[in-house]
Design goal:
Low-confidence stretches: none
Protein name: Luciferase family protein
Radius of gyration: 15 Å
GO molecular function: oxidoreductase activity, acting on paired donors, with incorporation or reduction of molecular oxygen
Number of strands: 3
Largest sheet: 3 strands, parallel
InterPro entries: Luciferase-like_sf
Structural class: alpha/beta
Mean pLDDT: 86
Number of helices: 3
């Protein structure tokens, strides 16, 4: 089984879809997106002193709906496969998972 290069697509705000065309140029086998409701970061340490990410997002829990986002990504890509690295099956209807 060959090892292929994949890319991780962030599902938090601020969302940047501009780089998708570059990611779809054939370099990557797939784009992976997580499906999270909340982050593992505690609010108490979400500060610029602890992580630079706090400068671009006021909360670590601002996740977008992964399946809706996958639809937006699919419109802008043609070659790269889309995948979820985590999918929350408890809060999704079975029809959405099919």
């Amino acid at each position: 089984m060959p090892l292929e290069l994949a890319s991780f697509f962030r599902t938090t705000l601020p969302l940047d879809l501009k780089g998708l065309e570059a990611a779809d140029d054939g370099r990557y086998h797939s784009l992976w997106m997580p499906d999270h409701l909340v982050s593992f970061w505690p609010d108490s340490i979400w500060t610029p002193e602890f992580t630079d990410l706090a400068e671009v997002s006021p909360s670590p829990h601002r996740y977008l709906d992964t399946l809706a986002l996958a639809g937006a990504v699919a419109v802008r890509t043609t070659r790269t496969r889309l995948a979820t690295s985590v999918l929350d099956t408890v809060r999704r209807h079975p029809v959405m998972l099919a």
